[in-house]
Inverse folding.
DNA sequence: ACCCGACTCTAGAACGTTCTAGTCGGATGT
DNA sequence: ACATCCGACTAGAACGTTCTAGAGTCGGGT
């Protein structure tokens, strides 16, 4: 039905309102230089004809797109949380977001290429897996902000949580509850894993527990946590700090299945068991049913930082540091409790 | 650093290669009409100058965008699952996806407007909350595919799961396990809720349990499920079918908290308790720790159906039905088990 | 009466591509 | 030897905006 007719253009509106295209353009984008009466008439006509500006043409001409490209991964619940914050932050400074998703069958390179063709003015990458060299090459063409990971490359901006500090918070919390045998379930080479590991190690040393440091290889998935749990069972610790929430739930599950109670799972008044602290405060970790003690990343601060950084680069008003580091926060929920003496 | 220099355009490539812009264009889009030697030379130059085509200009001229606009909600885990399938389906037929998210502070109208400005050729809306009249108005301008809900409007295409059938599957399963006192936790006016309610009612009647039909108002969030559970406790059923997974976990939680065991939560060999069946097979429901019996929507079929429908409308090769209904599948996990006689 | 500035409006170029309608040689067919 | 055709290539318009430069008009100050 609508296939035949062309969509209404600015020229149509101008003709119908009896003004020039240029004036119609002025009215539509709310610029100065149009009489009140004319303005009203043009707007009325535009409304009536269902005029919708063509952003492609607009941006083609004006050079600017005011568009920030965002690459996120559909598998990571935290990424969608972050998107919410990003929309807010971008809207506040008059920028739009264009999204490109990484999926199990669509890699980061493909996602990025899609955005480049859209001529966004900067790229914001969530936990990018690309090699530093590739990111650097990209950054030579447009501002690039990497989130949730460090990039040792001057041209690439970084906005991340202080993950070392995050792990320290987790360990401090557990030590305060009386735990000493604390294991770290690692994230290997994943973005942020090195920092989280180091935070654990530093905190253990600081508490005089250097001799009890124990790092178990893991990953980002639930099954990684479950597998790691099996390796833990022969000689169980009293507490575990985990690379992320998903892995933590996998761990929890196996622990409970083998009769190792976890605080919160034992009913009110229960004490002891193996405490587990996750990382990310993913939306599912908040589910009352999981109720995971975890290290929260400050979504709003991360989003605001990324947008501020990208916009500064675009508009050349650079003053701040290349790396923006956000303070994490410990969210104490049900999976951490006092240690029982062994 | 890159702020000063213009980005390289087709004209730059053409000049450097010593050919006309038109010929460069031919080469870049792989069209016929260029000599082999020239073709190679132009490609080499393009590579060297780091030429990246400007999709806006390209599409502005050619009219076509081969772009499908997708509106999804960041709060709905199932939506991101569906995105994965959609990228695959669109890629297979040579279309691109452009995403626009609904967030707690960014409504559907805003998300849709963003896509319209991008001049996508069709809109695919995940569980749209817009009124039928608004959808119809939209459909007058471009093909619109509504997913996961019915729309009584000829101009709007629909791709959805047979939700009535889905609820029936859930009830059938429970009845087979010996349950009779089965409650439905409702989704009110949310997309799909009416069908799921009706499926429950139909199945109950079919099993001669019309007298035991009991529908409790609920919603889509975890807290909706928790609230509903409180209303259920005074006179507990032996099983509940729930509008969606999130609400189901909220319900589960309160039930367990009040000492009502749920199958799977009572350890191996346990029998009886209140069975709970969710809806969606959201990624978190698969977590071993939640392990929810649920009705799965066929992501691939839904995605493929939506793309096929949208493309058919765009290209005018319409033959199929306006409404594509996909068969659901019951996923039996841990939260459903045999009924104990009351 | 004249000029000036402010205001409203317009013509036309520009953005980077694709598309249409060609031109130009050279091979082919008779 | 001449028309014909084909492949390689090009000039310039077109897409729907925004931007630049300037044209009218009006009122007020000298």
């Amino acid at each position: 039905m609508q296939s035949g007719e062309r969509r209404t253009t600015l020229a149509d509106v101008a003709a119908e309102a009896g003004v020039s295209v240029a004036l119609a353009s002025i009215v539509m984008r709310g610029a100065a230089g149009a009489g009140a009466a004319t303005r009203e008439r043009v707007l009325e006509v535009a409304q009536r004809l269902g005029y919708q500006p063509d952003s492609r043409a607009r941006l083609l001409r004006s050079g600017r797109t005011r568009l920030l490209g965002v690459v996120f991964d559909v598998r990571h619940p935290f990424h969608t949380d972050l998107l919410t914050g990003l929309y807010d932050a971008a809207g506040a400074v008059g920028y739009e977001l264009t999204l490109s998703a990484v999926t199990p069958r669509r890699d980061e390179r493909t996602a990025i290429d899609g955005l480049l063709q859209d001529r966004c003015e900067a790229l914001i990458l969530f936990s990018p897996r690309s090699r530093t060299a590739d990111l650097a090459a990209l950054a030579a063409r447009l501002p690039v902000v990497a989130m949730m990971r460090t990039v040792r490359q001057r041209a690439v901006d970084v906005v991340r949580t202080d993950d070392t500090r995050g792990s320290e918070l987790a360990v401090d919390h557990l030590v305060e509850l009386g735990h000493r045998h604390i294991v770290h379930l690692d994230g290997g080479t994943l973005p942020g894993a090195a920092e989280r590991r180091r935070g654990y190690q530093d905190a253990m040393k600081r508490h005089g527990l250097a001799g009890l440091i124990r790092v178990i290889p893991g990953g980002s998935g639930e099954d990684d946590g479950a597998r790691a749990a099996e390796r833990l069972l022969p000689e169980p610790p009293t507490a575990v700090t985990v690379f992320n929430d998903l892995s933590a739930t996998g761990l929890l599950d196996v622990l409970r299945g083998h009769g190792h109670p976890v605080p919160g799972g034992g009913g009110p008044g229960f004490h002891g068991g193996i405490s587990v602290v996750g990382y990310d405060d993913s939306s599912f970790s908040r589910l009352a049913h999981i109720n995971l003690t975890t290290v929260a990343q400050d979504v709003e601060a991360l989003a605001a930082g990324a947008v501020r950084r990208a916009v500064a680069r675009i508009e050349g008003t650079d003053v701040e540091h290349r790396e923006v580091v956000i303070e994490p926060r410990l969210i104490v929920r049900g999976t951490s409790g006092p240690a029982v003496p062994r």
User: Anything to note?
Assistant: The first helix of chain A runs from residue 10 to 17. Residues 119 and 160 of chain A are 25 Å apart (CA to CA).
